[in-house]
From TrEMBL:
Origin: domain of life: Bacteria
Full protein name: Putative phosphoesterase
InterPro entries: Metallo-depent_PP-like, Pesterase_MJ0037-like
PANTHER family named in the record: BLR1149 PROTEIN
Length: 233
């Protein structure tokens, strides 16, 4: 099957060895993984069954963008960090989409989110969390006990980073004359001397998102626009 053509690859290095693609994906080229969250695949189908009138375009955009990301970055492992589907009305479409993705990556890792329904989880192996070295992925909707680094000698030497979704972070930019623009954002927070929390932007084109702040923790915000990724000052 022909992979859709992609635009120029636009990334920013947000941590040593870690890239944030403008298309809302986090990539570790050396370790071979790529992570996205909150696809809410089938949103328009599920919501239309509830009475909403929505155009049929979100699934195709989600599919096209993700396949282009895979084509451009060639990850060995694709990590979907929860809310892969939107609801029970989109089980068949989401399952077919996962079947397609499995043909493009060696490992497809699915993390359970609050929108992921039992009917989909019966046919696919969902995890509550996934570890890649010092990076621990979980959706962020549950207060779950996460594993610490297994080697005791490394626990005081390695900084752990928890990577979540769920919150759909975004920023609203204003020109001072009444115009405003909302864009998805990637959040980095330091919670202690040896731990960070990172929050991925929602991958779904339907996810509007909102401000994400934590007065108790220093925070860095990266903005994702179609042609640029930049650190908000």
């Amino acid at each position: 099957m022909k992979v859709p053509a992609s635009p120029s690859v636009i990334t920013a290095q947000i941590s040593p060895g870690i890239l944030l693609d403008a298309r809302r994906a986090l990539i570790h080229p050396a370790e071979g993984w790529m992570a996205v969250t909150d696809l809410h695949y089938g949103y328009e189908i599920h919501r239309s069954r509830q009475g909403a009138l929505l155009p049929d375009w979100g699934m195709n955009q989600c599919r096209t963008t993700l396949l282009a990301l895979i084509h451009d970055h060639q990850p060995r492992r694709l990590i979907l960090v929860g809310d892969i589907m939107d609801g029970s009305g989109s089980v068949a479409q989401t399952g077919a989409f996962l079947d397609e993705l499995r043909n493009h990556v060696a490992d497809l890792i699915l993390i359970e989110g609050n929108h992921d329904r039992t009917a989909l989880k019966k046919g696919w192996p969902f995890l509550r969390y996934h570890r890649e070295g010092s990076f621990v992925f979980h959706h962020g909707h549950l207060d779950i006990a996460l594993p610490s680094i297994s080697q005791p000698a490394l626990r005081d030497e390695v900084e752990e980073t928890y990577i979540t979704g769920h919150e759909h972070p975004a920023v609203t930019l204003r020109d001072g004359a009444g115009l405003k623009l909302k864009l998805p954002a990637f959040i980095q927070q330091r919670t202690s001397h040896d731990r960070q929390n990172w929050v991925l932007p929602a991958f779904s084109p339907w996810a509007a998102g909102g401000a994400h702040t934590s007065p108790n923790h220093p925070q860095t915000t990266w903005v994702c626009s179609p042609g640029r990724v930049w650190k908000l000052r």
